[in-house]
Each structure stands twice: as structure tokens, then as C-alpha cells.
Amino acid sequence: MIELKDVSKVYRKGIREVKALDGIDLRVGPGEFVVVEGPSGSGKTTLLFTVAGLVRPTTGSVVVDGVDLVGRTSAELACLRKEKFGFVFQMFHLIPYLTALENVCVPMGLSGTSPTESAERAGALLDRFGLGERSDHYPSELSAGEKQRVAIGRAVANHAPIILADEPTGNLDPKAADEVFEALDEIHRGGAAVMVVTHDARLVRAAPRALRLENGKLAG
Asked: Which of 7-15's residues contact partners 24+ apart within 8 Å by CB, and which partners?
């Protein structure tokens, strides 16, 4: 489903070169749950964004569901992201003037799902992640862990086969982090591939498959 071969990413600042990724080989199969750990500046977010086609590699190939992202136009990559990916971010990125239910509805509305079906599906997802009684609450009325579970519901609302999460427990206390991990684990057990980048040791220990990224090189 996801295959990177000899992927490198070099950023140039004047005459200086910074190699964010250095010869990465990685395969993530359908329904697999992979956690990539590493310190700040190790290239974790660059790796995740390269998988999503948001960062173009300097060398190597990135294949998602049989589609090679290298050489694709920005419009083609945007279409691929809409069809294949759901995203979860450390800072949640919920729309502050929409309720939890309305936030989960957003991607469905963008894909043409009817308002009635969107609301039904969003309500079911919030129930699934233990937030049924919070569906009419705004982000400012939710805890950090609740916001992240809303964000996860939004990420899977369009049945994305691949979920990419960037430090999803970075702003959470241990209990909330456990709840978010359980939600991601449930998504993976439901058949979606889940790829998480993190420096959270608890998340790494609980992961079915853990890799380490340091100085742009992947091991594990």
C-alpha cells in the first residue's frame, strides 16, 4: 500500500545542505499499524509528508496503492490525498466555530456526501470514539484528548484507507494519550493502514511495529 525505495530529501540553504531523509526504504501494508519514533529534527514529519505527497523527494520513489507520486502534478497529488489519506495532527486543527459533529462532517461535505448522511456518519463515529454526548460541543468546550478523538473521527469520515498521524499524543496527558492510541488501534484493526510519527515512548512500546528514525536514516 505504501512503498518507499531509496528516498532522500535534501534541503539547501545557500551552500549548505541538510539531508532530512537519507536512503529510506519502507513498506507499510494494508491494515498495518506502524509507529516511527525519533527525536525532534530527525526527519519524522518530512517522512510523513513525503508519504502524503506534500514533500517531493530529492531522490527515490514513493508508491501509494500502486501510484508513483514522483512526477505527479500538484492537482493529481491533491486528488490522491482526498481519496487515500486521513490526517491527524498534534494541534488538532479543528474549526473553532463548528461543533464536534460539524467538524467531523467537513470532509464528507467536501466529497459530496449529503448533509443527512454526513450527520449520521459523524454521529456514529463520535459514538464509536466515546464522544456521543459531546457532539454539540465546540472545540473550546472539549479537553485536549476529546479534541484529538474528534480529529480522528474527521480523519476516517471518508473511509480513508491510510491514516497519517503527526505526534498525535504530543499535547495529551497519559490517560488521553491511551484513549487516542486505542482509537488509532481500532482503526487499524478495522482494515486501514495507520502510520504514526512520534517521540512518545509509551506509544512506541504499545505499537505492533515500531521503527526508529535518526539523522534521516530508518532502522528497526
From this structure: 7/50, 7/57, 7/59, 7/60, 7/61, 7/62, 8/57, 8/58, 8/59, 8/60, 8/216, 9/43, 9/46, 9/50, 9/55, 9/57, 9/58, 9/216, 10/58
Whether the Cβ atoms of residue 203 and residue 196 lie closer than 8 Å to each other: yes
Least confident of 12-21, 32-41, 158-167, 191-200: 12-21
The CATH superfamily of 2-219 is P-loop containing nucleotide triphosphate hydrolases (3.40.50.300)
73 is written with which cell numbers?
502534478
DSSP 58: S
Amino acid (1-letter code) at residue 184: L
pTM of the model: 0.91
> Could you tell me if 85 and 38 are in contact, meaning their C-beta atoms sit under 8 angstroms apart?
no
Give the separation between CA 126 and CA 167, rounded to whole angstroms: 21
Cα separation, 76 vs 209, in Å, equals: 31
Please tell me the distance from the alpha carbon of residue 128 to that of residue 42, in angstroms, as a whole number: 34
Q: Are 202 and 210 in contact (CB under 8 A)?
A: no
Question: How far is residue 28's CA from residue 206's CA, in Å, rounded to a whole number?
Answer: 18
